[in-house]
């Protein structure tokens, strides 16, 4: 479970993320949507502890960043990209990461993610989509209680997006709490139980997904109405 307690981040006078409260239960998938600069990465980075809050706190399964290693062991994080050592193979990279995390490299997981046949391929020769899969395998290797994913569908083809959807659903069913950011509104509606709409560093709305098509329509309406509003504000200011 993720608990956000009036957590916010400010750089100088400007709020990257205004203080917000929230709770994401075990087994729930939340997608973070919003335009460039809306605050998606800031919120994910507050959860993964790479930035510290200006106010408030985040707790993951009751642990806070002050719990150190135990906090970091509760979650798996998939960044949007990573500078892998290009001359290492997929198998070596995955095994190294698993050992660094203190677990055995689970080959069944590589198979589930479709990387089994690429174990002897150099990471430097992988496509963007293949690198995304490797990052996902790394995020899942410890079977974490919480999964934080930054733009997990970047570079994935539509078939893989569906498979990713199924995979995340299986993880949620085993009780994982999942948060992912995405620019793809249809992907948000497909993956998530709830979509958090961020705008200008504020949590501007939440869309519960009970029906994928209806949720997609609602997210689109929300997103484009707020974009139009932002453009109109911009025009008004120039007059
Ligand atoms: N290190 C920083 N110093 C100053 N401002 C920052 C810093 N990091 C982020 N910001 C600002 O915080 C706001 C939110 O940025 P954030 O990266 O969270 O947005 P985002 O929704 O992830 O955007 P994108 O979709 O472009 O990745 C932006 O206005 C950004 O300029």
Automatic annotation (TrEMBL):
Do the record's keywords include Cell inner membrane? no
This protein's UniProt keywords: ATP-binding, Nucleotide-binding, Transport
Which InterPro entries does its entry note?
AAA+_ATPase, ABC_transporter-like_ATP-bd, ABC_transporter-like_CS, P-loop_NTPase
Which family is annotated?
A: Belongs to the ABC transporter superfamily.
Q: Which SUPFAM superfamilies match?
A: P-loop containing nucleoside triphosphate hydrolases (SSF52540)
| Record's protein name | ABC transporter ATP-binding protein
Q: Start and end of every ABC transporter domain?
A: 2-225
Pfam family for this entry, one: ABC_tran
Q: What species does this protein belong to? A: Exiguobacterium aurantiacum
